[in-house]
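hiii so um. not sure if this is the right channel but i have a protein structure encoded as tokens and i wanna go backwards to a sequence. like what aa goes where. can anyone help
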């Protein structure tokens, strides 16, 4: 499934592909497409004492450049999606924004959250 958002300073595309019981996410932007990071997150079920639904602990492993902000985005996507879907997630990619402000970074995370929610609604829709 391809999810796309256009912001004033960049765009975000998230291609989510099921691979068996796992998920692969390719996270890109239209400004200087690149792969800046790869993060693998295991979704480990934990017992919920109140049985409100499944809970997952996430354990992540990353391959990236030192102090690369792409690792933060890929890690965030992998961990958020793994916790929401209860599946292992491999996220590769990078988002480029030229001199982003704190508000720009906040908007990136806000849009990433919306994209993950959209996918989760589609994925869990019976």
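sure thing!! here u go:
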């Amino acid at each position: 499934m391809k999810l796309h958002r256009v912001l004033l300073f960049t765009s975000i595309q998230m291609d989510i592909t099921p691979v068996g019981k796992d998920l692969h996410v390719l996270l890109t932007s239209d400004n200087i497409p690149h792969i800046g990071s790869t993060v693998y997150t295991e979704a480990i079920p934990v017992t919920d004492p109140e049985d409100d639904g499944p809970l997952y602990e996430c354990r992540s492993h990353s391959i990236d450049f030192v102090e690369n902000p792409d690792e933060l985005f890929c890690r965030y996507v992998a961990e958020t999606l793994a916790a929401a879907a209860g599946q292992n997630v491999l996220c590769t990619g990078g988002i480029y924004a030229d001199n982003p402000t704190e508000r720009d970074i906040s908007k990136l995370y806000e849009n990433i959250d919306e994209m993950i929610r959209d996918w989760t609604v589609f994925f869990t829709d019976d």
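oh and The chain has one domain: 14-124.
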